[in-house]
Amino acid sequence: MSAVPVTTRTRHSPLHLSRFALHLLWVTGGFLLAVLPHLSALQWWVALLAAVAASWRLVTEIRQWPFPHRALRVLIALIAMAAVFATYRTLNGLEAGTAFLVLMGGMKLLETKTPRDLTITLFVSYFLLFAGFLYDQNLLRLPYMLVTAWLLTATMMLVHQASPMSIAEALAKTAKMLIQALPIAVLMFLFFPRLPGHFWALPDTSKASTGLSDEMSPGDVSELSVSGALAFRVKFDGSVLPPPRERYWRGPVLHDFDGRTWRRARYGYVQRPLVATGDTYSYRLVIEPNQRNWVFALDAVTGWPRGTERTSDYQLVSPGPGITRATSFALESSTAFRTEGPLPKSMEVADLRLPQRRNPRSIALAKSLRESAGSDGEFITAVLTKFRNEEYFYTLEPPRLEADSVDDFLFNTRRGFCEHFASAFVVLARAAGIPARVVTGYQGGEFNPMNDYLIVRQSDAHAWAEVWLGEQGWVRVDPTAAVAPDRVEHGIDSAISDNEFVPGRFFVRTNALLQLRRAWDAVNTFWIDNVVEFGNDQQRSLLQWLGLHDPDWQDLGIALLISFVAFFVAISAWLAWQFRPRARDPVVRVYDALCKQLARGGMIREPHEGPNDYLLRVVAQRPELAGQIDEIRSLYVGLRYGRALLGSQLASQLSRFKFLVNQLRV
Amino acid sequence: MMASLMDRLRRRLRAWARRGHGIASDPIILSGRRIYILPTRLGAAFGVMLFAMFVGAMNYANNLALALTFTLASLGLTAMHYCQRNLAGVKFSSAGSEPVFAGQQAKFRIAVENPSTVPRLDIAIKNDHSSAPPVRVDANGRAVLEISVPATRRGRVVLDFFQPTTVHPFGLFRAWAYLHMPLHCIVYPRPSERAMAPPPLETDTGGAQNSVKGDEDFAGLRGFNPGDPPSRIAWKAYARGQGLHVKVYAGTAVKSHQFDWDALTGLGVEARLSQMCRWIEDAYAAGRAFGLRLPGLDVPPNVGPAHRQRCLTALALFDGAGE
After folding, report:
1. Which of A416, A468, A462 is nearest to A440 (CA)?
2. What local confidence, expressed as pLDDT, does residue A130 receive?
3. Cβ distance A333 to A289 under 8 Å?
4. What is the rounded distance in angstroms from the CA atom of residue A134 to the CA atom of residue B1?
């Protein structure tokens, strides 16, 4: 028998909790961490129920309370399920599914008694992490998710360990395994063919998000303008960008006015052909999820990818219910255009209609202005001149307006944001007999020289007007530009007075912070382009980069196969090396090497032979080695079986021992 | 139905492994080629979860969800390798077995040695009848596990196979090997009920026994040998720091039983052996000397555990010669 003692360890947790209680604590913690990213989207009572269940179970464990009765548990679970169903009307959608999972995890905790139950909760937590990505693929989520996945996996190791294991050891081992697993995970990500289309219809994710809506009341756009959130990014092919005053990003076009709120038309319009007359720009637009299907193309869009569509209002819309994740579109636009043909009668009627008995003073003003003007064009100039020359102010905090909002604005408050001016202008134009409509969207954008992207934020939201001028067709008129020319030339920050809050102004005024913000945005753009949006095209160029001329999905399969083989070979070899038989004690290790060398020389150590017997036999067989072997023998016996040596002595003897063994030539 | 099918499959696999790898040497270092690995039920559930995640991620065309799925899948594959490696290279050897009586469980001790510098976690051993709970074997460490086989009849019980197994690290995979290492355990006859009185004590004539040894008069001290009864140890001398010594008595009047095969007429072979076994156990418990006479074997009267073991082993392995 060897001299190594029998090892069975017992460790005690510092908290004096039982092992199961400790595992339960970790599982509950992991579950709560997995729920956390969902908090904002969850119904409050779902989160509350899960939290109560988790804490109840923990207290039950610590205080050794009896479990709630089975009937009670079933009742709570049934009520919770019914409540989820009543709230979401389905169990299929993402939100309902998440709520269902959170409740299931909580209910499972309430009856958790075995490692198997713990594992089920762990699996639910993994699934919640997964669902978290379906909501949001933000770069900042990745580290959180990775750390949580790591903790969950370490907990899984802990739970499935029969012999006691410390948490630190579980975490260390799992981290090592995760790092080893990462290369093949990355290769799978790169080479796994992305299947086109959906297996089942995507449920409607009606998550509230900031962005333009399909109607406009006074105050709507200015409310949006306090948000520094990203709306979309644009990368232009070539280095020429349209000048700032031509950067109009077209969104919903509004026709119906009830005196206060502008809405989209309730009936279809006839598409009039659009002829590009200005500079043409091709660009790629990466739009942030906005739960709408509007693509805010540069006005007016002339080329768009298949699937997307240009409406009769020249607005670009994507297919499907809405953009739920960052999506990119390759587009082409011309900043100047003209519409062919006459305005259809139905459109003319709709775009001249005004609510009856509303805003009488404005209508009267428009009529008098039109009478004094020689033409429609002159009338428009007159209105803009009025805005420019009279006391009208551009502000983010306009006063509240009375029922006749346009009258109140034009004659009383005289302070407004772009939607006030656009709305007033369209009402005046219609009253003067000129078909007009409100266009909402964004205007401007901040150029990031770090990655040549133009960043358009929610604060760039804008509203302007379009009027039908006979031959020219629809002509863009931006009354805001008349009041605050800086708005369209330099952005909202320079158009608003210093004592009003503008998002990002702080950044713009501090150069270091501005650089930081741009760098962060560049990182995010890279993230979206290369990870979130990674797809067939990127896979194709990856394979081309690897030297394949015309790659198809079979090449992806081959690449995947090669990756797997390489992974299996690498991990097997690495583990075989890690687990190779090897003494921990350096003295024994050197002695083993000596035995191996002597064995090669034909003198094999018998299993029963100790170092003295063996080495004496060696000396007897090979007397010429006597000097070296004798010193080796005495050193080894002293080091291994002698009195414990001091550090320096030990080191010098050990190095002498090593040296002698290395010198030995059999 | 399902369980019996699995059982039959397992048996087939075991027979196949035995043909393929033959009888295992003692000790044996488990080579990777002997190790089988399959997902556990939990592993299958994990796989189903990953598949659901995969379908969901593909459906939503969500790259990060897909990345999480792939990471977990890779982790599963890595865990598979760890599971197999946890068992490969471990050295198994027999660590003896204590004799038992028929009707008891024969216990076999298996030493598990870890020759590498990485700890092996959760290594368990099982056979058809029992399983040893998983133990951790530290770097260059050793653990002894015990499995049992029911000993139904006297003689030798053979542990024809045992199965080292592990589900480390996550319980997603089970790695195992079939080791056919023929280990034996002596099974004494089952002691019969206390029905027949033992043969009366005989005064030892001294011929069979060492004339120097006896119970009557103190004759001096000698060095302690393993097997000496604790009652004879000279504790006072030990307390004085003179080491362990045993008091030796001289004299003759040693009384002993003589358990004789031929005296038990009218009983079958096994009944006789059981009866003698009972007598030996009672005499041993009472600290009385006894001798054993079997056809072809004559054990002179003596005391002590070694003597008991010799006699009981003789009973266990008695093959009925002379009948």
Report:
1. A462
2. 92
3. no
4. 42
For A147, nearest residue in chain B (alpha carbons): B68
Copy the structure tokens of residue B142: 């050793």
B171 in reach of chain A (CB within 8 A): yes
Beta-carbon count within 10 A of B149 CB: 23
Check if the beta carbon of residue B254 is closer than 8 Å to that of residue B209. yes
Give residue-wise pLDDT tens across range A42-83: 888 888 888 888 888 888 888 778 877 888 888 888 888 888
Could you identify the residue written with the tokens 């990003």? A249
The model's pLDDT over A79-95, given as tens digits with 9 standing for 90+, comes to: 888 888 888 777 677 78
Q: Does B50 touch chain A (CB under 8 A)?
A: no
* Nearest CB partner across the interface for B60, out of A123, A134, A173: A134
Cβ distance of A181 and B42 shorter than 8 Å: no
Q: Does B85 touch chain A (CB under 8 A)?
A: yes
Is residue B179 a contact partner of residue B159, using CB atoms and an 8 Å limit?
no
Read off the pLDDT band of B218 (50, 70, 90): low
Residues forming a β-bridge with B32: none
Interchain proximity A184–B77, CB inside 8 Å: yes
Higher per-residue pLDDT: B25 or A257:
A257
Q: Quote the ipTM score.
A: 0.77
> Which pLDDT value is given to residue A3?
40
Give the per-residue pLDDT at A119: 92
Interface test with B, best of A101, A108, A133 (most B CBs within 10 A): A133
CB-based contacts of A645, cutoff 8 Å, min separation 6: A639, A653
What global pTM score does this model have?
Answer: 0.74
Known catalytic residues of A are 418, 462, 478
Distance from CA of A584 to the nearest CA of B (A): 6
DSSP assignment of B32-99: GGG-EEEE-HHHHHHHHHHHHHHHHHHHTT-HHHHHHHHHHHHHHHHHHHHHHHHHTT-EEEE-----
